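forwarding from the other thread:

> can someone predict this with FE2/S2 (inorganic) cluster?

sure thing
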Amino acid sequence: MTDKPTSPTTEGSDPGRRRVLAGISVALGGFAALLVGVPVLGAVLKPMVQKEPRVWRKVGAVNDFKIGQTVAVSYENGGTKPWAGVTGRTSAYLRRDTSTAFTAFSVNCSHLGCPVRWEQSADLFMCPCHGGVYYSNGDVAAGPPPRPLAEYPVRVNNGDVEILTTPLPIDGRVPKAS
Ligand code: FES
């Protein structure tokens, strides 16, 4: 009888040591995956569970606006971080209806979110993307938009006009100010 030849790769190796090294390798891989995965998962899930704070933002003094005129105003979002810069700003169309009443519309078309343009001479909001048209009260006049322009709560506070910041509503309905 002849002896069975041994493999040169396994000759002299220690299976126990290999198992330990494999275990360390798996543990380090798992630790690295946790290190990368937890912050990524947190960044993805956080906006779903944490609501953006709603804050009243001043957009100008009452007398800065003429009755009957619609103008674009810009302001800082509610949950803006100090490092956000210009990306933390948003805008709306503001109309002074009477000496004390204002209406604010979202600049985003209710179709796919393109910024609409106010055409004073036509008394219409126009969307450049797919030809959506809105009446001055925000109702759809023509084109593919499924809903009127979203309206934001506005108030007059100590002579200033303030808009309540809120994320753009997916269903077109901005929650009422509480
Ligand atoms: S995004 Fe305005 S009509 Fe399509």
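The pocket of FE2/S2 (inorganic) cluster is lined by residues 109, 111-112, 114, 127, 129-130, 132, 143-145 (CB under 6 Å). thats all i got for now
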